[in-house]
Predict the structure.
Amino acid sequence: MDELTAIEKACLEGRAEEAAEILAKIKGDATGTADYHYQAGLVQEAQGQHEQAIEAYERALQLDARHRKTLFRLAYVYDLRGEENLSIDYYKQCIQQPPVHVGALMNLAVLYEELGDAAQLTGQTERATELYDEASEYLRRILAANPNHARARLFLRDVEKSRQMYYDEEKERRADKRKQKLDIPVTDFELSVRSRNCLQKMNVNTLGDLIKHTEVDLLGYKNFGETSLSEIKEMLASQGLYLGMASEQSTQKKAATQAAAGHSGEHAEASTTSDADLNTSVTILELNVRSRKCLETLNVKTFGDLVKYSEKELLACENFGRISLNKIKETLASYKLALKPAD
């Protein structure tokens, strides 16, 4: 084993002092190579001197801009410092060169998932979608090279769950907006006196009341004619609504419920058998890598361990975010469990 390889091995195994001793013995032309400065950066990084490590890695790249190991370590250090943009830039340079660098692809996927989570929380709809798509793409590149890569498959499910949660929240927001629209009084619109009087006598006060009626209902009412009907339809169309909409949606919902009825018994049985299962492993939560590390730091291995913590205590753990907390609360609720109440 040559000296440079020995340094790398010692650093990665946590033997920083031994690595530094080997590095100090290197003399002559070897100290002017990209490999040497890469190894020097590893030693500095292993000793916790990240600024000096960055300087050494940058010197290595000045000598060889395509030095893959240096690109990866520099990206990793910037990631630890919370400088995501620089980290992403170096990881992307790293993966441009063959062969497939699984570590760089994996770390890029994690970064993009976390950025997607952040965009989701701030309501940046299109941006969140783009970031989740980017994360999925890197994971699929790993699986294309190694279909049996367990971590990539696990993380891909994690990204898809994050995306699904995002869509669910979007669905709730759209439902809230729709409810607000249906609560708008019909008196807010410029209607003819005849139309207004007819609606008042029919006890139609809001747009929500109005879409419960069909054209036949309205035309069957005394003094309500084609002119008033056209006026009403035009008013509803301006809000993306139409007559009979409520009854139509009710029919569709009923059909969907009946279609799913075949699965209801099985679901009910599952929810009963899993009640209060404190021995369930937290690995089923499928959290992102940083959140999983937080739970490992807290020595949380089962739901029984997890319910000993409150929301505040989990969020106090570095890099543990609101998205992961929501996943935990939702899963625990399905087991009829909950986090410890706040003091």
In short: Residues 150-182 form the longest helix (33 residues). The chain is about 70% helix and 0% strand. Residues 186-237 form a domain with the DNA polymerase; domain 1 fold (CATH 1.10.150.20).
